[in-house]
Amino acid sequence: MDINVERILQSIERGDRECVQTQLDKYNSEHSQCFFFNVEAKERRKLQELEEFRQNKVRSYIPDSDSDSSDESDALILRRRLAAALIWFVQSQTQPVILKTCLSTLRILSRDRQALAPFITDSAILTLARLAGITCLCLPPTEEEEEEEEEKDSGCGSSAPDGCTHKKTDWNPSPSSDGIQCRADSNATDANSNRADANSSRADANSSQADANSSRADSLSTPEVPLAAAAVPKPSPAGRSIDTCRSKPHDMHGHLKEVVIETCYEQRQPNRAGGNHSGMLARGKRDARGEREEEGEECNDNGESWRKEAMKALCNVIYNSQRAQERASALRILTGLSEKIKNDIHSPSPPSGQFYDLRLLFLLTALRPELRQQLLQARGVSLLTAALEQCLEVHWRQAYEVVTDSTAPSISKDTTECAVEILKTLFNITYTARRRIPDEEDEAQYRHLVAMLCHCLLLSCEEEDSAEELKGHTVNLLSVLPLECLDILLSVRLSEGSRESHGINMDSVHTLLLFMERRLDRGHKLKEKLTPVLNLLTESCRAHPETRHYLKQQILPPLKEVVLRPEQGHTLRNKLVRLMTHVDTDLKHCAAELIFVLCKENVSRFVKYTGFGNAAGLLAARGLLGGHGPSPQPQYSSDSDSDTEEYRRVRDRINPVTGRVEEPQPDPMEGMSEEEREAEAISLVSMFSRLARHKIIQPMRVAADGRLAPLCGQMRNNILEEEEGEENEESCAFSHTSWAG
Hints:
By secondary structure, this protein is mainly α. Helices cover 54% and strands 4% of the residues. The chain has 29 helices and 10 strands. It has a two-stranded antiparallel sheet with strand order 1-2. A hairpin with an 8-residue loop joins strand 1 and strand 2. Helix 13 (333-346) packs across helix 16 (380-392) and helix 20 packs antiparallel against helix 21. The radius of gyration is 33 Å and the shape is globular.
């Protein structure tokens, strides 16, 4: 591989395009599926770790990727030099075939986090953005400005971000022994931050030179738009390529009455007390979409193929590098990307590479907090809703009603993936919407979006996994939108085969119910997968009586068989009651809250369906152990909850703790005299007092406010009586011993 790279570098210096094309085709074919470049170093490290484990019996941390290790081999240096040379080379290329080949090589090289130094300069980022069809109004710094900043930053010896010691590599064609001169300077992370601020200020000052920049760009440039950006540092996720990463956001979770999803699709952060445990930008995996597109793909005259390659490489760089994220924000990539997506929406036929435009938009909003707010203020919700309409080819019957055709063919996997990226980005910029009271314009905008999400719930997809993913992200987004806008889910007109309750279409609610049950049955990552839909259904039941009444019929039908415990069985009620004793506190409270709301927050009815043992956790948390709440209950619609004949026959024999009929147990004190019973009771109290005195247990009582309170006073009197009794026994024993002596 080293010899091939040297030949490529020499061909680039000579300007031999045919030779470059031939060599890069071989390189791309050899490394198309390569994600760990230094295989030999990987094997050596594995053998070393295995030997250390045999000796020490302790397994050390193993990085997820070879690119996370500090590999300073000759192969890594050659990859950096090749990346720098290709970035310089593509700036002057116009032939689609060789341009696509060069960008494919850059995409492969951008997977390696250790070789990102040539990619994270302003010039490289703007070059990839221009080739991807994104117009940026900021000029890259000149060589004189770069050299001045390098002189200021000289003397800093710590490694640069992204795991590589070379902060920047510039391609300088000059006569040298190897045909390539690679300038690499090491700078500290703080120096990088200072330089980012300086570059941001210079970018603002150079914004007036946008026309000159556009004239240097090729015909891919899009119209100029006003821009605003603020660079806020944020940790970058360490991971593999994003063109091979199908980010699966975790379906989110939250607290009971609050919004389910309290954070956007960000990289995974360490769990904090009371914080969110969401897993967002997961490590990359192979991109099946890219493989499908590459099969039989040929370069076309309109340059769509190499635009996609440039966008893939840019996604990789943004995903893998914090420095690139900061510079992309300062260079206003988001605004140019938004304008490109807007132009694609209004074009007669959307380009085939729209998925990667949407993926880059998702990455920017997930990794840069200030860009979320920027996109939201730039009417990003309307833009993305329009993109979703175009993606799904939606036709409107009324203002907030989509025409649903049950005979329409299932949507393709590619269409589903584009829709998922739009939904994830929409979530990023709206996840705080429920905390604010929307104005008239925002409310109309959100209602329009909810109508689209209702359509997404009812769509059929070619693959089951794609349909599940689409519905999962739809639920996530519905969970953060204002509750007053969710009545659109119930406004769909009835049609043949629709599920209805009191004359209202319940297809969307039933779809959510089936979605929740499927995730319950899978039992995988219950907290991440279930919490959003549980909270969505709970809040919808509170806000819409029709939804609560329908779900009550489906989840809590009138009781007939009470032989088994409420948590035993295969019905939806049994599954939810089992969750009420789950080890995860958030999950069990979400499940209990849903059943409690379905019972109209009536304590006796809640205990009837779940048993007091399962219900005690929620009742204690809400101060309802006394049977009534500290505040008036919410107003719920009236519905019949009469007991069945089977339930009335056995009602008196139901154990309220277990919630089932139990056979009568023999009286343990049968045949005892009153004195024996009193002695047994005193012995029992004495044992409890001893356990409490040694802090093994803490006896509690139900206070006047319905919450648990310790039995301090009563236990103190019992403990004193017990200690006095023990002292008297010891005194009697001592006197008896003395008399006997």
